[in-house]
Amino acid sequence: MNEFVNEPPFRLSKGGLFYGLLLRLRLVEEDRYVPWRRIVIFAGVTWLPLLIMTAIDGTLADSSVGIPFLQDPVPHTRFLIALPLLVFADKIIDPSVASVVRHFQICDLVPDEADPHYRKAVEKVVRQRDAK
Predict the structure, then answer these.
(1) Is residue 3 part of a domain?
(2) pTM above 0.85?
(3) Which of 55, 75, 127, 132, CA to CA, is 20 to 30 A from 49?
C-alpha cells in the first residue's frame, strides 16, 4: 500500500466550487494561509446586511420589539465570533484530516481485502467535495 506515498495529500477544504470562487476572488491563496480577508468578507456578507436591514426596519435599537438587533447576542455571536473561529479552524482541521488519511494509507492500517473499498470511499469524498 505504500504506492500512496507519491500521491498528493488529501485536502478536505481545497477543492470544489466554493473554494474555486474563493481563489478567483483572491480570498484564499494556494500557498499561503491568510484568513483575515475571508473573515472580513464573510462577516460583511452575513452580519452587515442584518445590521442595515434592522436599521431600515427601525428595529436596530427600538425597544418596542422583543429584542432589538443591537441587544440580541445571537447574531453577533454567530457571525462575529463563531464564523471567524471556523475560518481559523480550517488551518488546524484540514492538515489533521490529511494527516489521518495519509497515516491510514502509509501504515497499512487498511487490510488488503478492504483496500478497494477504502480507495472508493476516499474517491467518493473527493468527488462530493468537487461536485459542481
Answers:
(1) no
(2) no
(3) 132
Compute the distance between CA of residue 54 and CA of residue 121 in angstroms, rounded to an integer.
46
Domain enclosing residue 105, as ranges: 8-130
Does any domain span residue 84?
yes
Taking a C-beta distance cutoff of 8 angstroms, is the pair 122, 35 a contact? Answer: no
Return contacts of 5-14, CB within 8 angstroms, 24+ apart: 5/106, 7/105, 9/98, 9/101, 9/102, 10/97, 10/98, 10/101, 10/102, 10/122, 10/126, 11/94, 11/98, 12/93, 12/94, 12/97, 12/98, 12/125, 12/129, 13/90, 13/93, 13/94, 14/94
Residue 103, all three cell numbers: 497515516
Examine residue 39 and state whether it is found in any structural domain, yes or no. Answer: yes
